[in-house]
Amino acid sequence: MDESKDHLEQRCPRLGGPVSFRYCRTSGDDVSACWKIFDCWWESFDVAGYLKKHLPEDKFNMLVNAKPKPKTVSLVELIEQAKKRAS
Ligand code: SF4
Fold first, then answer.
1. Most informative mutation of 19, 50, 81 for ligand 1 (most atoms within 8 A of CB)
2. Taking the domains of the chain in order of start, what are their residue ranges?
């Protein structure tokens, strides 16, 4: 994986604070990218091109077709993932 974009930061609409691109590309299910990654990053750089280049085709297609989850479920998941990272 190309890590050259990992340091980029922006405000996460789900968490309400700044997150790095590295977080966004690893915070989804199975340490894949967050389902909102296209929405959140398209203005900063060619995130679709980046992910297409660096993800296996099936993962990229899953991300393109990802649907939002109910907010409470995804928040619980985000918290659990944050706890796992901290431990
Ligand atoms: S891609 Fe996901 S984790 Fe990253 S800023 Fe957007 S909502 Fe937050």
1. 19
2. 9-86
